[in-house]
Amino acid sequence: MPEQSPFIWHELVTPDQKCSGAFFSELFGWTRKEVDAGPFGTYTLFQKNGQDVAGMMNPTSATLGGKTFRQNL
């Protein structure tokens, strides 16, 4: 029987996907795959050994609760 692990999804909301993506890719040895998310901009999938392990997206009004990014810091 194959080893099972719990489903865990890490997602980062950031206004600077380029910088954040480079940081986490180097830190964890992940590769990145960018996907067009239409009006939400780019959604980035982080992958390890060809498997999706996390995601990253731009802030939206839904993720910020109607506030600007700086107001949420």
CATH architecture of the domain at 10-60: Roll
> How large is the radius of gyration?
14 Å
Average of pLDDT: 82
What is the helix fraction of residues, given as a range?
Answer: 10-25%
Helix vs. strand class:
alpha+beta
The count of strands amounts to 4
N-to-C series of helices and strands: EHEEEH
Main β sheet profile:
4 strands, mixed
CATH topology of the domain at 10-60: 2,3-Dihydroxybiphenyl 1,2-Dioxygenase, domain 1
Note the gap between the termini. 45 Å
Instruction: Give the low-pLDDT segments.
Output: none
Q: CATH-wise, what's the superfamily of the domain at 10-60?
A: 2,3-Dihydroxybiphenyl 1,2-Dioxygenase, domain 1
Beta strand %: 25-35%
Strand order of the largest sheet: 1-4-3-2
Task: Give the CA-based shape.
Answer: globular
Q: How many DSSP H or I helices?
A: 2
| CATH level 1 name of the domain at 10-60 | Alpha Beta
Describe the protein's topology:
Elements: E1 10-13, H1 17-28, E2 31-36, E3 42-48, E4 51-57, H2 61-64
Parallel strand pairs: 1-4
Antiparallel strand pairs: 2-3, 3-4
Essential attributes:
73 residues, alpha+beta, 2,3-Dihydroxybiphenyl 1,2-Dioxygenase, domain 1, 2 helices, 33% strand
Describe the structure.
This protein is α+β, with helices and mostly antiparallel strands and 73 residues long. The protein has a domain of 51 residues: 2,3-Dihydroxybiphenyl 1,2-Dioxygenase, domain 1 (Roll), CATH 3.10.180. Helices cover 22% and strands 33% of the residues. The mean pLDDT is 82.
